[in-house]
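Reading a protein record of the kind used here takes only a little practice. Each token is a code from a learned vocabulary of local backbone shapes. With that in mind, consider the following protein and its fold in token form:
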Amino acid sequence: MNVDVAVKADSLIPKTSTFAIEKHLFEVQGYLKIENLFAKEFIQQLKAAALKNIDFDREAMTLNHGTQVAHRRYIVNIPFTSPFNDAAFYANPTLMALMREFLGSHFILSSLGCVISLPGATDQHVHADYYPLFEERPNLVGIHPPFAITVAVPLVDIDLLNGPTRIWPGSHKTYPIDQKMESYPQHLLHGPIGSCYFWDYRTFHAGGPNFSDEIRPLLYFSYTRRWFKDSLNPDRLAIDKQEYQKIPEEHRKLFPPS
């Protein structure tokens, strides 16, 4: 098992050789990690806001709301309010440049949530975030470009104790899930806050067990091609009229009317 290899956010400048290399790596691996994408002070703001939406019952070791997706693992929707409605978050220049390369010029922000891994959470099942677009034609899975990308932002330092995400490089070109996937080479996504991971919706991954005594919150959001509608995951982005009015005109194309 290998740990992940990361790149620096300030090295991902469009039209440079480094940017081209990382674009190629994403297309081959189906995922990428970027270090120092967000300032740690900003991550702390995101964490404080996200945890306001989490009602953790430590005695019962449950969350009182959210969708349970595995043993002691939940998905909680996050309202699109401050600081998540800050363009520094949803329109980060590095992310925007990368999404244009992978999803074309007409992409949108389609979800916002937080995966909460409670103390004692076990391994998550290996999965992709969505089915292939044409299940009846598995030979097409690895040919067409991505239609959606998940971005994950750890809100605490991720180490081997509290549960790094396992990811299978190149698995976005494989379907259906091979029963021997566990024996395939895999990477562990971990590191200090400020880093960001993102993967193709088709890439297989799984949250790791949480052996620590604290919750492990992982903020995530997704960018999708404008025509794609995610009917599987319970985290569709909802923006009320008041919050929409706060979005600068140049970024409103990321938020089409529902």
